[in-house]
What we know:
The complex is a heterodimer. Chain A is α/β, with parallel strands linked by helices. In chain A, about 45% of the residues lie in helices and about 20% in strands. Chain A has five helices and five strands; from the N terminus they run βαβαβαβαβα. Chain A has helices at about 15-25, 35-45, 60-70, 90-95, 110-125; strands at about 5-10, 30-35, 50-55, 75-80, 100-105. Chain A has a five-stranded parallel β-sheet, with helices on both faces. Chain A is globular, with a radius of gyration of 13 Å. Chain B is mainly α. Chain B has one domain. Helices cover about 65% and strands about 5% of the residues of chain B. Chain B has helices at about 5-15, 30-85, 95-115, 135; strands spanning about 120-125, 130. In chain B, strands 1-2 form a two-stranded antiparallel ribbon. Chain B is rod-shaped, with a radius of gyration of 28 Å. The interface between A and B is medium-sized, with 20 and 20 residues.
Amino acid sequence: MVERKILVVDDEEQIREVFRQAFSKAGYIAQTAESAEEAIEVMGKSPAWILFLDLNLPGMNGVELCRQIRKDWPMAIPYAVTGYASLFELSDCRDAGFEDYFTKPVNLSDLLDAAEHAFKKLDRWKRR
Amino acid sequence: MTSKEGRQHIIEGLEAGANDYIAKPYDIEELAARINVGRRMLDLQTRLVEKEKLQGVLEMAGAVCHELNQPLQAVSGWSELLIMDLAENEQNYAPLKHIREGVESIGKLTQKIMMISRYKTVDYLSGSRKIIDINESAS
């Protein structure tokens, strides 16, 4: 079984905190970062398998961050969570390597379902 | 229309706001063709104004959705987290459920605003002003 580690990247503190608490409550180890640059730093020290990335980040945006992560950690599964759906097309997000795409406000239960599903997939890959 | 073909008169007329001119005695077919030119110009002007209005609406919609969805996510998330620990008969369950329902309605509205692709208005305050018809504009 892969370690149940999740990284939440969002520049809004309240959103990071509420997602972190929801994942912790569900038994995951949840880390947070407020920018793409910090996310790469966190991944370097303690890589997460599942990531929830805001797209509209200061500095490097979420789509660029996703490309970087898929390049450096190809087994990681990133999800996009965006406040403004038209900022990037779904096809751009899929192209960058996002597994799925959520528009804020998203139900925590939907994010928890996504995490559960992704970890099941990772466990299956790991058994190969 | 002008019966004088003098260059100066034509320039004066155009400068004063005329879009075109035709010299008397005029040919009826030419007049009809020039009217069609005028119609095309009017049509282009109307389309340009509509396009500019839609552009304004889209910019506003983008700003509203971006600014609104962030705090909405926090309210939605915290209320969902709180309600997870409550049984239906507990004191705060019903108010929290109302908060969640309210957030959900606003969330649906911002999703719809993000889908706006046309400029359609609807009368507001018995027609004294017009507002964007979100349902029609986003369909």
